[in-house]
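Bumping my old thread because nobody answered last time. Still need a sequence for this structure:
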């Protein structure tokens, strides 16, 4: 039988393109209790056993987030070694059942960003369901009841009352309001900029560079609340990121986050909501490696320190950000 195992290992390890995507029935067939699929890159459940890791590996899981507290009853200390020997990153975010809170759910939200295939688990998926419910409530247009139902779908049981308490807490409600308003502000800003860019493009791309500059300037001056764009390679030095935002930009550069993935960033005194920006076809006209001579000339004139070049469609370009 030994050779068979070796062949399977080669097949599994040979090509990352060969990973099979999981389907709901396969995930539910695991030994891991309450196992389920959240989306294309996240599966959740209770405590997995060593055999389950073979399935995780065959699906291309590269990261394990364990919410169990080391030393709690029936804690499986070997799991870290199972994950590591399967080539997975192992992250521990210890959350005791009595500690379900807004802070813990935000800490989890930070870890979950990105498209890395991840297994998130606790002992019975109760804590998983609780924290996912709080996150969904904060970032989606969802009532308390809907958020709890979402949590239940992913394992929330005995922690339901406690989770309800967090959802109904004035601090959570206030943060949800701020996030909702921030998301709206970013959306309006993005749409307005794009509209002005398209108008400018009608007059010719070189003219559009100037329209873009004027539009941003005008929005910067008239906007009562801080909203803007930033990048690791800026065209306008005024868009350079502050340290907290720079950390997010670096992180998002490495692990592609979903286009609609919002993240909260604390920069000491204030809270910032950020959303990734990806390159589209239109953007290459002014941010690609090669641009037309008239655009080149305009950029040289208006942005002598321009760094925002060399991007391709689909590249991570930067973030929208707004103080909330
Ligand atoms: C007509 C040329 C033009 C096109 C097309 C264009 N941009 Fe820009 N872009 C600019 C200019 C000019 C600036 C600098 C604006 C300012 O002064 O803040 C800029 C700035 C930015 C910034 C802010 C960070 C920085 O580099 O200063 C981001 C992010 C950005 N563009 C992304 C995009 C994306 C995404 C698209 C496609 C949807 C796009 N751009 C299309 C000209 C363009």
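Sorry it took so long. Here it is:
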């Amino acid at each position: 039988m030994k050779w068979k195992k070796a062949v399977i290992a080669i097949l599994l390890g040979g090509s990352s393109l060969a990973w099979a995507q999981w389907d709901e029935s396969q995930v539910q067939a695991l030994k891991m209790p309450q196992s389920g699929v959240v989306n294309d890159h996240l599966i959740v459940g209770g405590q997995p056993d060593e055999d389950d890791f073979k399935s995780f590996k065959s699906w291309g899981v590269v990261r394990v987030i364990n919410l169990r507290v080391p030393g709690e009853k029936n804690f499986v200390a070997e799991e870290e070694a199972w994950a590591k020997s399967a080539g997975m990153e192992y992250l521990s975010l210890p959350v005791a059942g009595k500690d379900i809170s807004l802070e813990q759910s935000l800490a989890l939200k930070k870890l979950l960003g990105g498209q890395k295939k991840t297994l998130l688990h606790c002992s019975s998926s109760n804590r998983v369901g609780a924290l996912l419910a709080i996150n969904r409530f904060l970032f989606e247009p969802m009532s308390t009841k809907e958020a709890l139902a979402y949590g239940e779908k992913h394992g929330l049981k005995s922690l339901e009352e406690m989770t309800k308490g967090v959802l109904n807490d004035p601090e959570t409600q206030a943060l949800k309001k701020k996030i909702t308003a921030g998301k709206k502000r970013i959306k309006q800003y993005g749409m307005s900029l794009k509209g002005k860019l398209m108008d400018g493009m009608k007059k010719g791309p070189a003219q559009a560079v100037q329209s873009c500059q004027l539009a941003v300037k005008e929005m910067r001056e008239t906007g009562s609340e801080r909203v803007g764009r930033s990048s690791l390679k800026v065209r306008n030095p005024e868009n350079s990121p502050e340290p907290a935002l720079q950390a997010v930009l670096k992180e998002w550069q490495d692990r592609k986050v979903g286009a609609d993935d919002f993240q909260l960033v604390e920069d000491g005194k204030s809270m910032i909501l950020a959303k990734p920006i990806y390159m589209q076809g239109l953007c290459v006209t002014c941010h690609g490696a090669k641009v037309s001579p008239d655009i080149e000339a305009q950029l040289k004139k208006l942005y002598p320190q321009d760094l925002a070049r060399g991007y391709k469609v689909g590249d991570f370009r930067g973030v929208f950000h707004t103080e909330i």
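The radius of gyration is 23 Å. Let me know if any region looks off to you.
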